[in-house]
Write a structure and sequence with these properties.
About 35% of the residues lie in helices and about 20% in strands. The chain is of the alpha/beta class. It starts with a strand and ends with a strand.
């Protein structure tokens, strides 16, 4: 049901019953390292190229989420996938072996939110019962696609973020997983009673920024726009949520987000968290402003956010992955870098 100008409320329940996170070696050394399902030592995953490696990350994430659910492709109605690369090649090659109807989606680093809100729409509308959503990014493939080849050894400014090497996959269902209802284990395979209750679709926001090494500044205006729209559409304040979690603004984008919302007389500082700030130890790992990439919000959602909801530490969360809508063509032609952010409301029954 449409709610306000940009939001929708899912009257039929949509549950996230299982999640999987696969990350690279650097992510495994960060603060969330022991919470991921799989940390690989070789970021190439024995592949011949970085792009093939990213595809392998997606495949592993989907394999793990289906293994957790004790299911197989024949029981999945739809697979929604996306990544950062041109023509979404990490997704198309990574999930090509799954005989499941496939929809490729692109929202840059906001793609995790985009797949979740689309998957929830299919299920809530009665068009599917089980949907897998998967996204990925890879530090090396992203640097090659958007910035400089690794061998160039360019200097990174303090405003830059580090693209997360990783993939997150989620199984959405029209019913909760009955086996998990009374499971007391912290690391149970299933996620207890976490559902997607609503979503706010973001608008493209362009503040005229052209610095591809400052993704936080490019995306913060879009995050502020979507968060404010969510509050207006539902007639609520920041305190309606235990946490408001952006995808990958990093420390620079986080500060800008606070300033932009403050101009709208909105203060979220006491409830805000950013996945890009959480995933790395900025000082010890030298990641400057934090993490970014499709995989950043996805693996943090799977490894940290959903377990906290399942354990009852949080009851209701606004999850807002953010994306910078540039390509190497647009950047090389001197165009600005628009941003977008999609909000997904997660809550525990």
């Amino acid at each position: 049901m449409q709610t306000g100008k940009q939001s929708v409320t899912f009257s039929n329940p949509v549950y996230i019953t299982h999640a999987a996170s696969v990350v690279g070696s650097k992510e495994g050394q960060g603060p969330l390292g022991n919470q991921f399902d799989l940390v690989v030592k070789d970021d190439m995953l024995h592949q011949d190229s970085w792009e093939e490696a990213e595809s392998a990350f997606q495949k592993k994430a989907v394999d793990i989420v289906m293994e957790k659910a004790n299911t197989n492709p024949a029981l999945i109605d739809l697979l929604l996938a996306g990544d950062l690369l041109g023509q979404s090649i990490a997704s198309s090659f990574g999930t090509a072996d799954f005989p499941v109807p496939h929809i490729g989606l692109y929202g840059a680093c906001s793609t995790c939110g985009l797949t979740l809100l689309n998957g929830a729409s299919w299920i809530a509308g009665g068009h599917a019962k089980k949907v897998i959503c998967v996204t990925s990014s890879h530090f090396a493939s992203a640097e090659k696609e958007f910035r400089f080849p690794l061998a160039y050894g360019n200097q990174r400014p303090e405003s830059s973020t580090w693209t997360v090497t990783g993939s997150g996959a989620f199984l959405l269902c029209d019913k909760p997983d009955e086996k998990s209802k009374n499971t007391p284990l912290k690391h149970a395979n299933s996620i207890k009673n976490v559902r997607i209750s609503a979503a706010t679709i973001g608008k493209i926001v362009d503040y005229g920024i052209k610095d591809s090494m400052n993704m936080g500044a490019c995306m913060a205006p879009a995050a502020a726009s979507t968060i404010a729209a969510n509050f207006q559409d539902f007639g609520i304040s920041p305190h309606a949520y235990d946490k408001i979690i952006t995808g990958d603004l990093g420390t620079v984008g986080q500060t800008l987000l606070y300033d932009l919302l403050w101009k709208k007389h909105i203060d979220i500082q006491n409830v805000h968290m950013d996945c890009g700030v959480q995933i790395y130890d900025k000082v010890k790992q030298g990641t400057h402003a934090g993490g970014s990439g499709c995989g950043c919000s996805a693996v943090t959602l799977a490894a940290m956010i959903l377990p906290k909801l399942a354990l009852g530490e949080w009851k209701k969360v606004l999850f807002v992955p953010t994306g910078a809508l540039l390509s190497k063509t647009s950047f090389n032609e001197g165009m600005t870098i628009p941003g977008i952010a999609h909000g997904v409301v997660l809550e525990v029954e």
